[in-house]
Design brief:
Strand 1, helix 1 and strand 2 form a beta-alpha-beta unit. The protein is built from ten helices and 15 strands. The protein is an alpha/beta fold and 326 residues long. A seven-stranded parallel sheet has the order 3-2-1-4-5-7-12, sandwiched between helices. It has a four-stranded mixed sheet with strand order 6-15-10-13. A two-stranded parallel sheet has the order 8-11. Bound molecules: nicotinamide-adenine-dinucleotide.
């Protein structure tokens, strides 16, 4: 029995691969990237682009040969700005990639499926706290590809008789191991650490929101907690034909200024900040309500903001000194 992790060479995927391995499980990684033995050590790693011709057939053969019974599907493009610039490519990549994986499951023994969804499906919600029943109105192609993915799973689980869980991640940050830090500067934590390291002031987009200190409020969840949410989803798969959706956040909102204060405290660095105008579409506050995942999967976040920043800082310095997965 093995678990297939698509996108397992990526930031979150690599954490889940290691967490599964720590439980003694066999893991098969499929990723379009050049395999990095340091990142996915002891896993079976296949380089495969899900959009390549014949990918579903290759994947089905791999699933059967390796005895795969569960799939976690991370492989996707995740840049909102890029999705606005190249929307059709985003639909091809994210919707097409999921379609290829689901096509590959037909005729295999796969019974459980976990899908990386996103808080981006909520768009700019009217209420700051969102439950899984809040309206889903994504405001960019990236968010729409995730919502379409959920719809595709609604239909596929019934027709193909497996069980699925979609996890709507909030703002993921931190590192479980110093060599598995987020190598990209796409989220606030890595952007801020990168800028202070380079002696540049972090940029704050708007200090006139209707929030206690005027800056935007988000829900930051530690990647290790997120990895455990995937394990809980795999361990407590529903009935064949079921597709359940869960928010994965902490339920605690953190403002940009609070986050910057924590960065200064953890790193010991002093820095100026640059406040500029809000970005179009940025909501004042988006925070997860997490009652459903706690009630149904027994999961709750255990790491706080300090732990997120401290582990991200350690990983940032590790990447600077040794390269990303030395
Ligand atoms: N990082 C976040 O804050 C966040 C938040 C919400 C949702 N997500 C979702 O979680 C998943 C993982 O995110 P991440 O931060 O680890 O991203 P990442 O970019 O680090 O990892 C994604 C991996 O998928 C691979 N991949 C992409 N397209 C592929 C394809 N066509 N075929 C094979 N491999 C492909 C990439 O090579 C990469 O290794 C994504 O689906 C993303 O949309 C991430």
């Amino acid at each position: 029995m093995a678990t297939l992790v698509t996108g397992g060479a990526g930031y979150i995927g690599a954490h889940v691969v290691r967490t599964l391995q720590e439980r003694g499980e066999r893991v098969v990684v499929v990723d379009a990237r050049e395999p990095d033995p340091g990142r996915n050590r002891d896993a079976v790693v296949r380089r495969l682009d899900l959009l390549a011709p014949g990918s579903a057939e290759q994947l089905r053969t791999l699933i059967i040969d390796e005895g795969v019974e569960a799939v976690i599907h991370f492989a996707a493009r995740k840049r909102v700005d890029e999705s606005l610039a190249r929307p059709v490519w985003y639909y091809e990549q994210n919707v097409g990639g999921l379609a290829a994986v689901l096509a590959a499951l037909e005729g295999t023994a796969v019974e459980r499926f976990v899908f990386s969804s996103s808080a981006a499906v909520y768009g700019s919600p009217e209420e700051s706290f969102v439950t899984e029943l809040s309206p889903t109105r994504p405001i960019n192609p990236y968010g729409r590809t995730k919502l379409i993915g959920e719809w595709m799973l609604d239909d596929a689980v019934r027709a193909q008789s497996f069980s699925a869980v979609s996890l709507r991640y909030f703002n993921v940050a931190g590192a479980g191991w110093p060599d598995l830090g987020d190598p990209e500067t796409l989220n606030l934590v890595t952007i801020v650490l990168d800028r202070i390291e380079r002696g540049l002031p972090p940029v704050v987009f708007g200090d006139d929101f209707e929030t206690p200190d005027g800056s935007g409020v988000r829900d930051y969840v530690h990647v290790v907690d997120l990895a455990h949410a995937h394990i809980a989803a795999l361990d407590q798969a529903g009935e064949p034909g079921s597709h359940r959706v869960f928010n994965v956040g902490t339920g605690v909102g953190t403002s940009v200024f609070e986050l910057l204060d924590m960065v200064a405290d953890v790193t010991g660095r002093r820095f100026e900040t640059e406040v500029i105008a809000r970005r179009a579409g940025d909501p004042a506050a988006v925070v997860a309500r997490t009652e459903r995942i706690t009630a149904e999967l027994g999961w709750r976040a255990e790491h706080d903001l300090r732990s997120i920043i401290a582990s991200a800082w350690e990983a940032h310095r590790h990447a600077r000194d040794h390269g990303p997965s030395a």
